[in-house]
Amino acid sequence: MDFGIWLGVFVLLSVWPSVRCSDLPRGAIETVCRDRYLLVTTQLSFAGNKPRFEAVDADGVHPITKQYGSECGYMFSILPLPGHAELRASYFSCHTDNQDDEVFTFSFNLITIDANRVEATYSVTATCSLPLPWSPREVSCEENYMEVSVRGEVSGLPGTKADDWTAALATAHSSATSTWQVMFQQEGQQLTPMSPSEARELGYVFYLTQGRLVFRSPYMPGSVMGSVTMVNGTLVEVVYPILVSRQRWVVIMVNLVVACSTDEGMYDGAGLVWQTPTLLSPLVSGLSGLESFKISMGVDGQLLDEPITAERGYSLDISDTTVQISIPFNAAGGYRKSFVMGNMYHEFYVVRLYYEHIFMDDSGVETRLRLHRPMNTPLLIQHLSIINQTVLKDRVFTVYLGNLSYDVDLVAVNLNGHKFTMLEANKSGLVITMVPQPNSTLHAYILRVPFDAVIHKLYPTEGLLEYSLDINYTLVILPQAEPYFYLASVVAQFNDVFPPVFKGVCNEKSIRFQMDHKPFDYLWEVVVGPHILTTNLAAKRGYIMRNDSKSLTLDVPLFSVGYTYKDINLKQFYGSFEIHSRLPKTLEVKSSLAKACLFQTTEVIVCSTEGVVTVVTDVTLAIPGAEPNGTFLLDSTCRPQETDDTRVLFSFGLHTCGTRVQVHHQHVTYENDINVEHKSQSVNAPVKSRDTASVVTVRCVYPLSDLYKLFAYWRFEADSPGVGTILTRVPVKTFQPTFPPTTLTTTRRPLTSTTTSNTGLSPGRQMPGIHPRAKYVSLQLANEPT
Questions:
Q1: How far separated are the first and last CA of the chain, in Å rounded?
Q2: Which superkingdom, per the lineage (predicted)?
Q3: Between 20 and 30 A from 235 (CA), which of 192, 460, 652, 733?
Q4: Predicted confidence (pLDDT) per residue in 442-465, tens digit
């Protein structure tokens, strides 16, 4: 809804557009007698959005329109923020039964209209006894009219007796042709007398009671005889009527001047400020020594004690020239309304100021002024307050969203892209609590989100762990349920957070890795190659793993899956094993330890991903006394790189040296033979001869799927190492196989190279994932070969 329309409705909206009913629903309407007026309120939930009132007396029914209300002493308002309509009727209003200025009886019709535009009429009557004695002169500055009443003893002429005043009033009441004349004093113009009825046609009402004379005037521009003057920097509207009556030798003149500050207040960035002259000089005219005696303030037509105004933050500053009242934005006693425009949260704040000022002259004659003034701020862009109340040790984000008006509700939150309604949030382990905001009518929401819920983890620099939470609040403005989205981001940072660090130690036939546990170890995965280190993976590969509250220890026997080898000779070689710590989400490796150890060489076969086989074997096992330096492969030009008394070291390409190849359904097998020349002697021949015998078969088996480049580009480049086998032709003796891998790190599941005697090795089986509790370190199992 447009702000101007809302504000107009709030400040003053009177409508007067019939089933009649004399019964009033209980609680739908209330009447309260205040100092100088009757207050009638009706709830908009009962009366609809456009109720109206009619004044009822012996002469009939009188609709209270905007103009009629300003002339006859009625102020009608529809107030959407508190949700009611109200009518303030002056004790001197036109159709009120006045008994000696002490008892006042009112009668109204309340006309309601429901959603189906069906009207209903309810009778409202009330009687008020004067709660506070009349002052000699009283001025009422209502929102839509000014009213002054004076007592008979202050007719404005020295020496006038009460009997003269009474006689004049009696004449005015009884005479068909009243001797009363009215003159309006205006600057620079002559006084022109007119009858009270002529003045009535101009909107001015003169009303004679048993003891008082009342004058009522609308504000300009409805007041043609009024004027506006500047008094101590404040605009003041003034009407100077003089009422004159000739009764024989007595001339009665009554000065009924009325003056009201027309300051509408201003917003100074912190609250609403209203001011008025300390002395309204037009009221001083003709009086001697008029001084300010007492000033009080309040809201909604009721004065407040100083302790209450101080508690609310109201201030009343009085100087020799001006009185200034300040009310902080959103202080208690006012009304705050929210709006959404272009997903911007706007508000305005309204206060219905009530002001009373008592003046006293030298003779102790009192003038009491009362003023009703609604004030409002302009439409303000409001900035909600976000406070990150997170305590790191609790491991829970605690976010405070504050500065929300009473008409704003939170209905959903979006946390890092995950949307939760209020109900869903509570079921998901999130906690959203609405709390009052201290010392105000505002409220706030506290959101609690565990770090392990939907939080993003980042490592912007080494040693710094950062949890981040992006929040999109979905708020609605009531009652129109306008949505409003508010974005916020909060961050929690931990220092000295580093990935697990392993220490490596070389043993005779293994490498031992050890890691001391730290509080944040669970944030990383420990992996061997691409596979997460788990108890299942360790068992399948023959690793020995111990994980307790203090440390993790991993013993990796030589020739286990995951080793790489280099610098192989007949005496020794380097075996390396690498272990990593990586982020589970991005798989980014944050720390690594590659431990290389020097091992003694016995028998080894390595089938590399580049298609090179390296083998060390003892040829004398097949032919005792065979000379190793006399060995060769199927291609007799391929000779050993090294030999000693019993062993040979060959290294050759799988497509060289006469290597045989066989393609099976799932594998490709490469074989070559190590041949040896030896001397032999037949039993029938006395001369020894030299023979050639195949003593060892070297075999490498690769998965067919890993050799796609071989068939596409005729280039050997396997995705994983081959499985190696040494077959020694000796029927009576075997040795334990070992399984060394290639030196190249691969991009797929590694298959280990092996050595064996008279046996082959099939590819490893795939195992299902196992997820143990991450009490000390984060371990998981992905599918991997044995």
A1: 71
A2: Eukaryota
A3: 192
A4: 899 999 999 878 777 777 777 788
